[in-house]
Amino acid sequence: WFLFRHGLSGVLADDMGLGKTVQALSLLLKVKQEHGSKPVLVVAPTSVLPNWEREIERFVPSLSRFTWHGADRKENIGMLEKVDVVLTSYSLIRRDIEQLKLVKFRTVILDEAQNIKNADSATAQACKTIDADSRVALTGTPLENRLSELWSIFDFLMPGFLGSADAFNERFEHPIMVQGDMETRERLKRRIHPFILRRLKTEVAKDLPPK
What we know:
The protein is α/β, with parallel strands linked by helices. Helices cover 42% and strands 15% of the residues. The protein has helices at residues 2-5, 20-35, 49-59, 90-95, 97-100, 122-128, 147-157, 165-178, 182-192, 201-204; strands spanning 10-12, 40-44, 65-67, 85-89, 105-111, 132-138, 196-197. Strands 3-4-2-5-6-1-7 form a 7-stranded parallel sheet, sandwiched between helices. Strand 5, helix 6 (122-128) and strand 6 (132-138) form a beta-alpha-beta unit. Helix 7 packs antiparallel against helix 8 (165-178) and helix 8 crosses helix 9 (182-192). The longest helix is centred in the first third of the chain and has 16 residues, at 20-35. The protein is globular. The two termini are 29 Å apart.
């Protein structure tokens, strides 16, 4: 909410199982209450879309939703601007980007945002062309192998914030990953820290209900 109010974007990187979906829906409800209706786009793996549908119905039933999916989806293109939340998958955003990028969204949320860790992929490029006022990345694994994955997520959130891919490699990735430069590592950490909310399961285990 703080980032949204200041026109910024960010990463919600809590460990898996700590409720990133509910936190994101809480933000969307708050924004609607404060600023009125405007469509939000959620992009998630196909297998996760039913979970988003269930969580919307359970926790924020006042938010209307439409799932951009199925063979007849393009016949319902008018729905994209009539609902609070549009749900779609990474495979469809890649395939249907020409239709989706015509809509002005308030926010675009990438669930399991590690799906755009390869900045050159068609999926990442499609996500980055969506027209939205703010952007949120949800991921329990913000970094899996290379620092370039982090750069790609920030290139989606705030293009230019970490410089170009080549500049980032020269200033941060090579010194940190190849040379083990701890000073450079801390400098990068300080730069991205204000835009990442991360809780570990060990930190909040005592607050979680039993399964």
